[in-house]
Task: inverse folding
């Protein structure tokens, strides 16, 4: 079911085997019970993994650790160096126009062209010279997505990126993220608390519970996926039950 | 700053006037704001003209204007304004530089904070104008004590606001910068300092205000040139009109520097929603 092997080899060999992320025995605690408790899992290159969990389950901590924002013992974690994060808030620098936000820290000769391409992909060509605070929520989040994409990440970390958007914008963004993933094929870890979103997008859904992986489920549904599908509903029920919600 | 609209006169009513050309419409509010000062001037002039108030106590606006003109044609006015302006410019340049340097040291490193902040906070509680006697004993009565006082007074608002601005830079933006591979120096340049700029400009505005106040006080002590000298001299000759000219100059210069900070804000904080709204975008 999951990609973890018995003996975990080193980073180079992992890449040869098509594995983007390897987590082995990762434990994190902040002076209380373990937030992450001896986690073991891996993510294949180009694989879309959704991570579900209630608040306080440790899913954001896991994402921050994978992003390098929280330190972890090096022997517990292998991640590609080309990573990008999209947070729940767009986190654009308000004093830089959209284009400058996307090119920021981009160390390639044709950064500007690349950024314009990425902005075109998220349909923001009209707003490249706009100030971030004049963007709508959806536009700002698309700019954040372009800023992540332009770095050509091997691992794209999405931390509840649609949670603050209205329902219609959220649906459009989910479709966009699915399209971009198919076009660029980074490994994706999507942290969310929305079961439907996870089933709509991911190859694999993990449920985190008290710092441990409670469920690691492959989603073998044809794309594009539909909420009305019977199989979809069955998986949703299973996941909701694992999250402690019982759908009628 | 937007105008205050009374409940009976909503903004929409003012804008609904049918065919006012765009330019005229933009001028109208500033014209409306001029009504009250003009009215005050007229009443003032009338009070003196009718003899209700003695011109010795309160010279008529026309008399003040004539005195200003006479001072201007003899060149006295300009010379003294330039002397005062120079004191403020040099004092501010020193004060703003030192305040900025200290705030950067304290804001960007914990070690710097320990070394600088507590000391600056202590010195800050001392009203700098209380140092005048000491300044005179140390530096005599020339330009040095005046400039030192202005520098000292303008340093603290710069320090306090810039330090707070640097420390207040959004942690989430700094995190995002680090996930984009920005080095620490780049993060300071692209995230921390721009975030601190609004605070710096607030500090600058306060520093200007303090610089003018300090100038007024410092110039009244043994000055041989400057607006303060003009005013003190006028007092000795009972020339109330010239005192008023001096006051008007102080007010105008203060207004001018305040406008210059507002210009800087519009130029460098163009990304702020308030500035965007002001610019009509």
Result:
């Amino acid at each position: 079911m999951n990609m973890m092997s018995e003996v975990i080899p080193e980073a180079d060999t992992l890449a040869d085997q098509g594995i983007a992320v390897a987590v082995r025995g990762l434990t994190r605690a902040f002076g209380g019970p373990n937030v992450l408790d001896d986690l073991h899992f891996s993510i294949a290159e180009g694989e879309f993994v959704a991570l579900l969990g209630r608040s306080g389950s440790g899913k954001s901590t896991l994402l921050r650790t994978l992003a390098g924002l929280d330190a972890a013992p090096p022997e517990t974690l292998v991640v590609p160096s080309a990573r990008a994060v999209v947070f729940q808030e767009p986190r654009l620098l308000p004093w830089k126009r959209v284009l400058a936000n996307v090119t920021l820290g981009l160390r390639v000769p044709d950064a500007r062209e690349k950024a314009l391409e990425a902005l075109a992909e998220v349909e923001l060509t009209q707003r490249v010279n706009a100030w971030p605070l004049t963007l709508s929520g959806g536009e700002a989040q698309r700019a954040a997505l372009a800023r992540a994409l332009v770095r050509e990440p091997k691992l794209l970390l999405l931390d509840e990126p649609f949670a603050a958007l209205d329902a219609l914008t959220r649906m459009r963004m989910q479709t966009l993220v699915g399209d971009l993933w198919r076009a660029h094929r980074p490994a994706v870890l999507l942290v969310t608390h929305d079961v439907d979103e996870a089933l709509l997008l991911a190859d694999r859904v993990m449920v985190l519970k008290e710092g441990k992986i409670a469920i690691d489920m492959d989603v073998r549904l044809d794309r594009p996926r539909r909420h009305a599908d019977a199989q979809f509903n069955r998986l949703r029920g299973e996941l909701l039950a694992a999250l402690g919600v019982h759908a009628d | 700053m937007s105008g205050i609209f009374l409940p009976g006169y909503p903004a929409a009513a003012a804008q609904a006037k049918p065919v006012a050309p765009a330019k005229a419409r933009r001028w109208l509010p500033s014209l409306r704001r001029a009504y009250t000062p003009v009215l005050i001037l007229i009443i003032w002039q009338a009070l003196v003209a009718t003899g209700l108030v003695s011109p010795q106590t309160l010279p008529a606006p026309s008399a003040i204007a004539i005195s200003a003109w006479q001072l201007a044609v003899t060149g006295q006015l300009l010379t003294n304004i330039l002397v005062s302006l120079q004191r403020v410019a040099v004092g501010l340049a020193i004060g703003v530089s030192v305040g900025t340097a200290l705030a950067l040291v304290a804001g960007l490193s914990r070690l710097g904070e320990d070394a600088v902040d507590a000391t600056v906070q202590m010195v800050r509680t001392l009203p700098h104008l209380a140092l005048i006697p000491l300044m005179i004993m140390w530096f005599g009565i020339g330009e040095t004590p005046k400039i030192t006082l202005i520098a000292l007074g303008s340093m603290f608002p710069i320090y306090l606001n810039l330090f707070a601005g640097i420390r207040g830079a959004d942690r989430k933006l700094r995190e995002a910068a680090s996930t984009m591979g920005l080095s620490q120096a780049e993060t300071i340049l692209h995230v921390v300092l721009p975030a601190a700029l609004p605070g710096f400009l607030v500090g600058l505005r306060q520093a200007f205000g303090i610089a003018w106040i300090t100038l007024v006080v410092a110039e009244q002590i043994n000055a041989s040139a400057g607006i303060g000298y003009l005013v003190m001299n006028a007092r000795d000759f009972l020339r109330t009109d010239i005192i008023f000219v001096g006051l008007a100059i102080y007010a105008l210069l203060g207004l001018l520097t305040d406008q210059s900070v507002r210009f800087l804000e519009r130029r460098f904080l163009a990304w702020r929603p308030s500035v965007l709204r002001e610019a009509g975008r």
Q: What stands out?
A: Chain B has twelve helices and no strands. Confidence is low (pLDDT under 50) at residues 1-19 of chain B. The CA atoms of residues 223 and 229 of chain B lie 5 Å apart.
